[in-house]
Amino acid sequence: ELKVEQNPLFLSMQEGKNYTIYCNYSTTSDRLYWYRQDPGKSLESLFVLLSNGAVKQEGRLMASLDTKARLSTLHITAAVHDLSATYFCAVDINGNKLVFGAGTILRVKS
Amino acid sequence: DVKVTQSSRYLVKRTGEKVFLECVQDMDHENMFWYRQDPGLGLRLIYFSYDVKMKEKGDIPEGYSVSREKKERFSLILESASTNQTSMYLCASQPGRNTYEQYFGPGTRLTVT
C-alpha cells in the first residue's frame, strides 16, 4: 500500500523567509502533483511533475521530484502572506489513482 | 476551463438518512472520483469511475455507494448516514486514463447529527 508522508504538517514562517516542504512516498512512481487549498475552497493544481529530476517553478514556489529517493520538495522563496494556504502532494498510481499526503498548513506572518 | 460542480456546499442530515451528493463535470472527462477530506488525513479516495456504469472501490468505500448513469454525472450515496461520515466531500474529474491532473469541485461539507 502506497503511503505518502508530508512534513512539516504545520509551518509558521515570517514574510521574506525561505522554507521547504517535503513529500516522501513509499513505492515507485514517477508522477507527483502539488495542490494548493485556501480555507473553505477546493484544491487548485500547482505543479505536475512527471519524471525523475523534474523541476517546475511558479513565482515564489519551486517543486522538484527525485524518483530514486521517492522524494518531492516544494520550496518557498521569500514568503509573502498570500502564500498562506494548505499544500498537498499527491502521488499517482497506475496513471489515474492519486494518494494524497496529509497536507501542510502554511501560515506566513507579516 | 474545466468546471466541476457539486450540488450543495453545505448539507446537514440526521443519522440514518439516505444522502445523495451530486457531481457534474462539463468537459466530457472519462474519469470521475469521490474523496473525503478530514483534518490531518488529507484526501482519501472513496470510489472512482472510468466510464458510465463502471465503478471501482477506492481506499475507504465502506458505508458508501456510487452511481454513474451519465458520463458527466457521478453521484455519491450514503445509504444510512452516520456521524462518522461528517466530513468534507470533494469530487474530481480527469480526462482519461494516463492523463494527468484531476480537477476538483468546490466540495460539500456534510454534517450528520
Index terms:
heterodimer; A: 110 residues; mainly beta; 6-stranded mixed β-sheet; 5-stranded antiparallel β-sheet; 11 strands; B: 113 residues; 7-stranded mixed β-sheet; 4-stranded antiparallel β-sheet
Walkthrough of the structure:
- The complex is a heterodimer of chains A (110) and B (113).
- With 110 residues, chain A is mainly β.
- In chain A, 0% of the residues lie in helices and 58% in strands.
- In chain A, a hairpin with a 4-residue loop joins strand 7 and strand 8 (71-76).
- The model of chain A has no long low-confidence stretch (mean pLDDT 93).
- The mean pLDDT of chain B is 93.
- Chain B has strands at residues 4-6, 10-13, 19-25, 31-38, 42-49, 56-57, 65-70, 73-78, 87-94, 103-104, 108-112.
- The chains are: A mainly beta (110), B mainly beta (113).
- Chains A and B meet through strand 5 and strand 10 of A and strand 5 and strand 10 of B.
List the helices and strands and how they pair.
The complex is a heterodimer of chains A (110) and B (113).
Chain A: E1 4-7, E2 10-14, E3 19-25, E4 32-37, E5 43-49, E6 55-58, E7 61-66, E8 71-76, E9 85-93, E10 97-100, E11 104-109
Parallel strand pairs in A: 2-11
Antiparallel strand pairs in A: 1-3, 3-8, 4-5, 4-9, 6-7, 7-8, 9-10, 9-11
Chain B: E1 4-6, E2 10-13, E3 19-25, E4 31-38, E5 42-49, E6 56-57, E7 65-70, E8 73-78, E9 87-94, E10 103-104, E11 108-112
Parallel strand pairs in B: 2-11
Antiparallel strand pairs in B: 1-3, 3-8, 4-5, 4-9, 5-6, 7-8, 9-10, 9-11
